[in-house]
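Page 42, continued from yesterday. The earlier attempt failed because a stray header line got pasted into the input along with the sequence. Redoing it now with the clean sequence only.
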Amino acid sequence: MNKKILIPLIVVLVLVAAYAGYTLTKTPKKTVPPKINGTVYILQKQFTLNLSGGQYATLTVALLLPPVQSVGTTSATDPPPTGFGSLTDEAPIRAIITNDLTDQPASALLTQRGRAVLEHKILSNINSETDTKVTAIYFTDLAVQ
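This time it went through. Structure tokens are written below.
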């Protein structure tokens, strides 16, 4: 009668020990940091800009804000103007983008290298001239005519 109780008890103990050994030796999953670290804020109103040579560009711009950067809030009693978002420095940021892109050659927006140079210039100007800290600029919808 002792053997009837002892054998199942040993089997249960072996299974518990095997499970514990498996879970303790298993390597923990690595946490992968996010590829986009922060908040992507899309400037709501599209830009239409005059380029050199009589051409023009239409584009949408997005800003990558650090995780601690606030995008502001909107209220029903005091909403931002139509076509504008809740970012407190949106008007100066739009002015910087307009000034930096106006009269550029179309080739500056049509090549990846040209866009990268312009994005860096805009990023530097935004970070030095406004209280909003931006970590990256993205030209999203872009058309040049």
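Notes: The chain has one domain: 39-144.
Reminder to self: strip header lines before submitting.
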